Amino acid sequence: MKLQEYLASLQGKQVAVLGIGISNTPLIRLLLGAGISVTGCDKNSREQFDGLIEELEALGMEARLGPDYLEDLEQDVIFRSPGIRPDIPALERCRARGGVVTSEMEVFLEVCPCRVIAVTGSDGKTTTTTIISELLKAAGYRTYVGGNIGNPLLSEADKMQPTDMVVLELSSFQLMTMKKSPHVAVVTNLSPNHLNWHLDMAEYVSAKENIFLHQGPDDRAVFNYDNDLTRQAQARAPGKSVFFSRQNPLDEGVVLENGVICVRTHGETRQVLPVEGIKIPGVHNIENFQAAIAAVDGLVPDEVIRSFAGTFGGVEHRIELVREVDGVRYYNDSIASSPSRTLAGLRSFRQKVILIAGGHDKKVSYAHMGPELLAHCKFMILTGGDVLGSTVPKLCAAVVSQPGYEEEQLPILFKDDFQDAVLAARDIAQPGDIVLMSPASTSFDKFKNFMERGNRFKEIVNSL
Predict the structure, then answer these.
(1) Cα(330)–Cα(436) distance, rounded to whole angstroms?
(2) Which of 193, 197, 203, 221 is nearest to 123 (CA)?
(3) Helix pair 283-296, 302-309: axis angle to 10 deg
(4) 13 to each of 10, 77, 94, 411, how far by Cα in Å?
(5) Side by side, which strands form the sheet with 377-383?
(6) 452-456-457-461 Cα dihedral, nearest 10 degrees
(7) What is the number of H-type helices and E-type strands within the chain?
(8) Which value, to the nearest 10 degrees, does the dihedral of the CA atoms of residues 108, 113, 119, 120 take?
(9) What is the DSSP string of 221-254?
C-alpha cells in the first residue's frame, strides 16, 4: 500500500491523534492536508504549546486538551503516541466498538516503499542506528533516519524510492503493538529497563521481539550472542539470523579476533575493521560497530567501514567530551538513563572518574552497580534527591552496602540542585581528572528529556 492509498482509505472517517508532540505534529499536518477530520488530544494545556494549537486549529484540527483528553474517544481511527500504553481503558473501548488503534510508525512500515533496517535494545540503539545510517550514506545510498531519532517519516514516504534505505531506532513503546517487522532487525542487547512503564520484564522483552517476529524467510535478524536474553531470543526468529560477539569465537557471524572485527561465513573469515581504527572509546562501541557491520554486510564495502570508523566521533550526549578546563576533562553522557548504560560509560575510561549521577527511577535494580562504582569512581556526586522516585537512595545504597565499604574508598556528596552538583565536581577535581555526567536514571525529575539535561550540563561546563 502506498501513502496516498492509505490516506484515501481514511476519507470520511473521524481520526484522533493522541499526543501533540514531535512525532505526531507532522502526522496531524499530513492528515489535515489530505482533508481528513482530525481531533488532536493532549494532556497539556493550550498555553504550554506556544501557539502550536492555534496554528493547527487554523488548518482544521479540533483540539481536546487537559486531563480529560482521553475521555469519550469515539473516532474511527486513533493514532497512539508511543508513551501511551495500548491497553488503557479508553483504547480498549475503541477496539471493542470496532475502531482501529495504530501509530505513526506502524502505518509507516505498511506504506514504506524501500528497504528498512531497524535497531532496538536496552543500550546502544542510537549509536548503532547512527553508525548504520552513516555507513549507508557513505556507500552512496539515499538514507532516511527515523523512529526515536531523526524525523517522523510517514509524511516523507511518498518521496522515497525502492532503491533508498530507511534506518529506524525503535523503542519497546513503539514496538509493543507492531505487526510488521523490518527487512533487517538488530537487537543490541536486553536488560531490565522501563519497568516503571511495562508490567514486568517479560512484557518488555516481548515488545522488543516484535522487531523480528514478523519477518519473512529472506529477512535478517542480528543478535548479540554475549547477552543471554538476546541469544535466547534468536531461537524465535522466523527468518535468517546473524550473531555478533565480542567475547566468543563463533563459527558464523561477526566476531572479534586478535583485535580485528571479522565476518565469518561458510567457513571463511574476512577481516573488516581493526578496533584500533575505531575513534570513539569503549568496548561497548566495538559491539555497536559489530552490530552495524552485521546489519550492512553485503551493502557497504569494507573500506567504507574502515574509513568511517576512523572519523566518527560519536553521537551527542553519549560520552561526549564537552571541554577541558584547568586540566580536567568533562564528559556528557546524558543518554545513560539506565544502570547498564552508565556502567558501559565508566568502563570506557582507564582511570577512576568523578561521577555525577541520579535522577528519576525506572523501577530497576541498582544493587549490581556497587562493585563497579567502587572500581571505576574516585568520587560520586548524587543529584535529584529532592524528588519522590529518585534513584539517589538506590545509587547510594549500592555503594555503602558493599562488604567493608569505608567512606574514604568512594566519598559520596549529595546536591539537590543540578548546577550545584556540576560546580561541586569542579571544586573537587584536580588536573588530570575526568568528570563524567552519566546519571543511570531518566531525566524526568528535573528535565523534559535527556537532551535537555545534557545541554544544561554543557552550558554549565562551558561557563566555568
Answers:
(1) 6
(2) 193
(3) 150
(4) 5, 7, 14, 62
(5) 320-325, 328-332, 434-437, 353-357, 377-383, 412-415
(6) 150
(7) 16, 20
(8) 30
(9) EEEETTSHHHHHHGGG-SSEEEEEESSS--SSEE
Q: Is 422 helix (H, G, I), strand (E, B) or coil?
A: helix
Contacts of 131 by beta carbon, 8 Å cutoff, 6+ apart? 288, 289, 292, 308, 312
Q: List, in sequence order, every residue forming a beta bridge with 379; answer none if it has no partner.
A: 354
In which residue are the cell numbers 553508525 written? Answer: 131
pTM here is 0.79
Question: Across-strand partners of 260?
Answer: 257, 274
Determine the Cα–Cα distance for residues 331 and 334; give it in Å rounded to an integer. Answer: 9
Kindly provide the residue ranges of all beta strands, DSSP E only, lying in 74-131, ordered along the sequence.
Answer: 77-79, 100-102, 115-120
Opening angle at CA 201, ends 197 and 207, nearest 5: 75
Q: How far apart are CA 29 and CA 36, in angstroms?
A: 10
Beta bridge partners of 414: 382
What is the DSSP track for 372-417? Answer: HHHHHEEEEEEE-TTSTTBSHHHHHHHHHTSTT--TTTS-EEEESS
**Residue 139: how many CB atoms within 10 A of its CB?**
16
Long-range contacts of 258-267 (CB under 8 A, 24+ apart): 261/286, 261/289, 261/290, 261/293, 263/293, 263/294, 263/297
CB 339 within 8 A of CB 440: yes
| Residue 303 φ/ψ, nearest 5 degrees | -65, -30
Residue pair 169/120 in contact (Cβ under 8 Å)? The answer is yes
Three-state DSSP at 312 gives: coil
Return the number of other C-beta atoms located less than 10 Å from residue 400's C-beta: 14
CB contact at 8 A, 413 and 381: yes
Say which DSSP state 270 is in. Answer: E
Per-residue pLDDT of the chain (464 residues; tens, 9 = 90+): 899 999 999 999 999 999 998 779 999 999 999 999 999 999 999 998 989 999 999 999 999 999 999 998 999 999 999 888 999 999 999 999 999 999 999 999 999 999 999 999 988 899 999 999 999 999 999 999 999 887 889 999 999 999 999 999 999 989 999 999 999 999 999 987 666 767 788 899 999 999 999 999 999 999 999 999 999 999 999 999 999 999 999 999 999 999 999 999 998 999 999 999 998 888 889 999 999 999 999 999 999 999 999 999 888 888 888 999 999 999 999 989 889 889 989 998 989 999 999 998 888 899 999 999 999 999 999 998 555 578 999 999 999 999 999 999 999 999 999 999 999 999 999 999 999 999 999 887 788 899 999 999 999 999 99
